[in-house]
DNA sequence: CCTTGACCTAGAGCCGGCTCTAGCATCTAC
DNA sequence: GTAGATGCTAGAGCCGGCTCTAGGTCAAGG
């Protein structure tokens, strides 16, 4: 059996295992690394293959959350750079996070307003589906 | 003065005016029409130019809300088709809206969880920025 | 030995959703 | 009658974010 495919609690994982655990594709993992999202490039085994540790996994989960909340790769890269530079730039990290927090809050607000509209339409259509006489409602 | 650029309450508007009012670009407006998002193709003036009515504007606002909540153009097109077919397919419109409503709710859920993570980090960094002694915190 | 499977790099390709360009028509105001 | 604004079409281009391909390495197992 090649690699550590089924390694449940191995100290370091191959890229396939990380893909399984994070839900990212191996392609995406290599892509993220090329794009500089990973604080430091992943360590390699003596065979030149990537070996991920638990810390890498944790950081990837952070990246995934940032991405899934719409942070562009550029910004995540910047954050990773700041983290990689070590202590001393907490103010900049904070500023970046605050900006993104506002952004996410705004997204939630916008989505909530969309949800309202959709729910209103849903109610209208539910009425027109159960009660056929309300067909000619001017609903779109 | 060409067109009805400043028409505040004109019965029909040119594409530029609609762009101003919706925030979409004229390019995007023509693009949306080509893509079939507009229920029926926009009426034209005798000069061959698009004339938008208040109903078009309302529909565009719906499209904008659907788009901004992440509904793909394909789905909006489908919804527009259903609306364009007139009464009789309310069940299908409803199904489509319900699917999207679930989707939006899920998005809000995901974003809220991201917001939590970000807020946690914000707190950590706010502490480390005000209180310099907490620098060596293992924060990322 | 040879197959299988996990992994590697470099780089091309793709998809959604616009955005922009070229080249032209029309209208109004000066 | 010409400048400037507004509009038209067809189609090319762009950007972000992956995704996939080609061609190869390496280790274990049968």
Brief characterization of the structure:
Chain A is mainly α and about 140 residues long. The first copy, chain A, is about 60% helix and about 5% strand.
Please provide a written account of the structure.
The structure is a homodimer of 140-residue chains. Helix content of chain A is 61%, strand content 3%. In chain A, helix 4 runs antiparallel to helix 5 (90-130). The model of chain A is unreliable at 1-9 (pLDDT under 50). Chain A folds into two domains: 1-86, Orthogonal Bundle (Multidrug-efflux Transporter Regulator, Chain: A, Domain 2); 90-131. A two-stranded antiparallel sheet of chain A has the order 1-2. Chain A is mostly helical and 140 residues long. The interface between A and B is large, with 42 and 42 residues. The structure holds a DNA duplex (30 and 30 nucleotides).
Give short descriptive properties of this protein.
homodimer, 140 residues, mainly alpha, Multidrug-efflux Transporter Regulator, Chain: A, Domain 2, 2 domains, 2 strands, elongated, disordered N terminus, DNA-binding
Task: Tell me what the CATH architecture of the largest domain in chain A is.
Answer: Orthogonal Bundle
CATH overall fold name of the largest domain in chain A: Multidrug-efflux Transporter Regulator, Chain: A, Domain 2
Biggest sheet of chain A, strands in spatial order?
Answer: 1-2
Major sheet attributes of chain A: 2 strands, antiparallel
Mean pLDDT of chain A: 90
Counting DSSP E segments of at least 2 residues, the number of strands of chain A comes to: 2
Distance between the first and last residues' Cα of chain A:
58 Å
Name the beta content range of chain A.
Answer: under 5%
Q: Quick one: CATH class of the largest domain in chain A?
A: Mainly Alpha
Helix coverage percent of chain A? 55-70%
Interface with most residues: A-B, 42 and 42 residues
Task: Provide a count of the helices of chain A.
Answer: 5
Shape label of chain A: elongated
């Amino acid at each position: 059996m090649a690699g550590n495919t089924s390694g449940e609690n191995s100290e370091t994982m191959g890229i396939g295992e990380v893909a399984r655990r994070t839900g990212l594709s191996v392609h995406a993992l290599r892509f993220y690394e090329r794009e500089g999202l990973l604080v430091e490039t992943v360590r390699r085994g003596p065979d030149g293959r990537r070996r991920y540790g638990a810390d890498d996994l944790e950081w990837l989960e952070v990246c995934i959350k940032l991405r899934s909340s719409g942070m562009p790769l550029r910004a995540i890269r910047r954050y990773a750079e700041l983290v990689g530079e070590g202590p001393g730039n907490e103010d900049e990290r904070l500023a970046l996070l605050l900006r993104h927090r506002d952004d996410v809050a705004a997204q939630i607000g916008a989505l909530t307003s969309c949800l309202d509209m959709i729910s209103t339409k849903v109610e209208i259509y539910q009425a027109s589906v159960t009660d056929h006489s309300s067909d000619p409602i001017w609903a779109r």
